[in-house]
Amino acid sequence: MTTELRVLRPAEWASWFGALELAFGGVPETGAERALWRDLTEFERSLGVWDGEECVGTAGAFSFRLSVPGGALVPTAGVTMVSVAATYRRRGVLTSMMRRQLDDVRTWGEPLAVLTASEPEIYGRFGYGLAAQQLTARIDTSRVRIAPPAAPEAADGSQEVRLRRVKPDDPAVREACEAVYAAQVAGRPGMLARRPGWERLPVLDGGRPKDGASPLQCVLAERHGEVVGFTLFRNKPEWDMAGPKGTIELGDLYARDAAAYVSLWRFLFSIDLTSTVLADNRPPDDPFQYVVSDVRRCALRLRDSLYLRPVEVGAALEARTYRAPVDVVLGVEDAFCPWNEGNWRLSGDAKGASCERTADRPDLTLGVRELAAAYLGGTSLAALARAGRVREVRTGALAEASTAFGSDVAPWLPHGF
Ligand SMILES: CC(=O)SCCNC(=O)CCNC(=O)[C@H](O)C(C)(C)COP(=O)(O)OP(=O)(O)OC[C@H]1O[C@@H](n2cnc3c(N)ncnc32)[C@H](O)[C@@H]1OP(=O)(O)O
User: What is the pTM for the complete model shown?
Assistant: First the structure.
């Protein structure tokens, strides 16, 4: 096979993106979607594999900043648009792109890479571990009520929240919604600080058929004229012999405080002629679970979401803080990025951390995938040890590290990329 792997040139984008669409089944994106993805493509960070004129492999790496425990926003490669032509599969094209990409990410000085996987089995071999899950819910709103024990108060003591329907793509609305989103980022590991342009993603309509659902609708929660929350959703009307049974398909819902948050959920539950709220990507610890009258009829389910890879173990572990004081030597195995292999002394607490190479014996040994899984606090090292994936060498080290790596707020990635 005579193929060439090279950095994407702007003139090649249409063939490159076309190859990606074909690898994902051949349904072309709409014009608006294509335009957005072209605008967002970072050419110098994208790779193509070419056989003559034919593009047979694609991979990109957005320059994100990822929120980690403690609130730091860490430069992170957002691995995306990975594909190999169906006629070139299982010949190592993906492996060659992952090799080049991780070497590049290291050169760019970004300690982390993240992705969402079309299939969970693909990326473990390259050192990616499951770092965050997403909660899905199908809520029977004909039976379930929002029933907070008491009306929550806002920080200023007032309770009044006014809901206002607005046009989702109005620039002033987008700006206000982005500000609400941005205020959440540091407080939840796994969220991405969006670069300019990404605010178009949640409202991208694209002209694609909605399977009977309405165009995107937006409702703001305001207090004293200030936007304190918003929701984006579609309404899919449906009727049968018994009457109306429409579905609210929830896109986004963010709020700055509990009063606004509860008001928005209450609104979604109360829309006439609907009896279901469908939410396919909520944080695993989304508080709506704690204000519903019947959690069983919410049909909650977890699924894999964000995969993470520590590209530079030392820098990655220093970038976050730790819930409790920790001083352990981690023996890290990393066959794909051997510069991470070896023993690292991690000393840290809630204020900060240092992580340096050491000649000391390890207290815990683990693969880089396990470190990845624990990194954002979404998977406990103790649970991984019970699965045989982390080994304790010094008694007590596992409990110490497992407590320290935990996060009070579940990591969550709000949207794909
Ligand atoms: C972040 C994202 O963009 S996720 C999107 C990923 N892309 C897709 O799913 C689009 C459709 N699929 C494809 O384009 C391709 O099948 C890819 C990209 C998943 C794999 O590309 P290939 O060039 O065939 O992979 P490559 O030959 O390098 O395989 C490397 C190893 O991964 C394994 N592998 C590759 N794809 C898969 C898969 N889908 N499931 C399980 N194992 C896989 C191979 O068997 C091989 O294993 P080995 O090292 O034990 O021999």
Answer: 0.96
Residue where a domain terminates, one of 276, 303, 330: 303
Q: Residue 375: name the closest of 306, 327, 298, 301 by CA.
A: 306
pLDDT in tens, 225-241: 999 999 999 999 999 99
Number of domains in the chain: 3
Tell whether ligand 1 has an atom less than 6 A from the beta carbon of residue 86.
no
Pair 8, 111 in one domain: yes
Out of 62, 87, 89, mutate this one to test ligand 1's pocket (max ligand atoms within 8 Å of CB): namely: 89
Radius of gyration of the chain (CA): 23
Q: Which residues contact 412 (CB under 8 A, 6 or more apart)?
A: 132, 134, 188, 189, 190, 191, 282, 283, 284, 305, 306
Whose tokens are 């070139």? That residue is: 88
Complex ipTM over 0.95: yes
The three-state secondary structure class of 280 is strand
Q: Is 123 a catalytic residue?
A: yes
192 in a structural domain:
yes
* Ligand 1 proximity of 371 Cβ (cutoff 6 Å): no
- Identify whether residues 144 and 277 lie together within a single domain: yes
Residue 89 alpha carbon, nearest atom of ligand 1: 24
